[in-house]
Specification:
There is one protein chain. This protein is an alpha+beta fold. The protein has four helices and 21 strands. The strands form three sheets. Strands 2, 4, 7, 9, 10, 11, 12, 13, 17 and 18 form a ten-stranded antiparallel β-sheet that branches. A hairpin with a 5-residue loop joins strand 15 and strand 16. Helix 2 packs antiparallel against helix 3.
């Protein structure tokens, strides 16, 4: 039964009032005879990353295109029926491998004929030389006239010339027979065959197939004349392009970074007057054939003279109207906004030119939970600098 304090309240009202006091408990107003209690929400937990410094050099990216280091169009020097193909299209071939064979029977006959003709001419030249020798012996005794001797001299010279012509014909016939077998000029990959076995081919048939060598692979790119002039001024004592202190890498079309490092291989000797650029070439090892000729890639050139700079995970970077910023957690676990000047990306990290220093903590997970001035419960995490995967510090 209610005390006299509530005696003027009707029974239904008393009952409702009693229920409200029971349900609301400690949050009820003082009318239930309780003091008002305000519960403070716990600080939100966020993942933080401690900023580290790394050695970073001056950096530029160039649009570039890959090119085979060697390329040869396979053609024929003789005419005949293509009777054999000794390779699979798109396969690797070695220097000296037999690629294609043309019917050699006609050229074997030419060689045999040339051989017989040469032997005949050699025999004729030998006979003419003997006649001339005897003629000179008897001419001194007056048995033949000077006119007859001159004829013997002429005949000997002509037969010697005929031997030279026969030797040339024999050599050509031998070469033509050799040309019926088309040999790989170097190690590489061979592409599609343009003429099938059974067709008649000739020098006018054009390219039968193309062989390319892609290890190393060349990467061609252009540099502005002003930048190239600076390059020449800074490296005037370097004797060859591959001595330039640059780290060269390429980013492939699928946005992955190629594992092999390259060297500067060639620099053109003149500026293109139409574009105001100079052509340069880098060479990259390509043992697995991953980089194909004709790809558009990004050439990444970084100076080997590096300086210590802060790197932050890309996951921590946000942007507003004032630019890119980070959420920093101070020693009191309070959150503040820090605008930063960012440089280039290196895998999953972003180089910071200004605005953050090594040792400071930045939020990488739970960004949506907080705002500047709020106290947080920071949980230290690690970040894989290549993949960007976040893991616990203990892992």
């Amino acid at each position: 039964m209610f005390t006299s304090k509530y005696k003027n309240i009707s029974s239904p009202t008393k009952a409702a009032f009693f229920v409200s006091c029971v349900l609301l408990g400690p949050l009820a107003l003082t009318g239930c005879g309780k003091e008002e209690v305000v519960q403070q929400a716990p600080a939100p937990a966020v993942s933080v990353y401690t900023v580290n410094n790394d050695q970073v050099g001056t950096y530029r990216e160039f649009t570039a295109r890959t090119e085979a280091s060697k390329e040869a169009d396979i053609t024929t020097r003789v005419q005949g029926e293509l009777i054999e193909r000794k390779f699979v299209e798109g396969s690797e071939v070695k220097k000296g491998d037999l690629l294609l064979k043309i019917d050699p029977s006609e050229y074997e006959a030419f060689l045999a004929q040339s051989d017989a003709d040469l032997k005949s001419k050699i025999a004729g030249a030998a006979g003419a030389a003997r006649d001339l020798k005897r003629g000179r012996e008897i001419a001194d005794k007056g048995f033949i006239s000077q006119s007859d001797l001159d004829k013997l001299i002429t005949n000997a010279a002509q037969t010697q010339a005929a031997v030279k012509a026969g030797e040339a014909s024999f050599k050509k016939a031998k070469l033509d027979l050799g040309y019926t077998e088309i040999i790989a000029p170097f190690d590489g990959k061979i592409g599609r065959v343009n003429i099938d076995v059974g067709n008649i081919v000739s020098p006018q048939s054009g390219v039968l197939a193309t062989i390319t060598s892609t290890d190393p692979i060349y990467v061609n790119f252009s540099v502005e004349e002003a930048l190239y002039t600076t390059y020449l001024q800074e490296h005037r004592n370097i004797e060859s392009p591959d001595q330039v202190p640059l780290d060269l890498k390429i980013r492939l079309p699928n946005n992955t970074e190629y594992a092999e490092a390259g060297v500067l291989d060639f620099a053109d000797t003149k500026i293109d007057r139409n574009t105001g650029t100079v052509e340069l070439r880098a060479s990259f090892p390509n043992p697995e054939g991953i980089v194909l000729p004709g790809l558009f890639v990004k050439l990444i050139a970084e100076s080997k003279n590096k300086s210590s700079m802060a790197l932050v995970p890309q996951a921590a970077v946000q942007e507003n109207q004032q630019g890119k910023f980070l959420l920093v957690v101070d020693s009191n676990n309070k959150v503040s906004t820090r605008h930063v000047d960012l440089g280039r990306r290196i895998n999953a990290m972003w180089v910071v030119n200004a605005g953050i220093e090594a040792g400071e903590r930045i939020i990488i997970e739970g960004l949506q939970k907080v705002r500047p001035g709020v106290e947080v419960n920071p949980v230290e995490k690690n970040v894989d600098t290549v993949t960007g995967i976040i893991t616990n510090s203990a892992e």
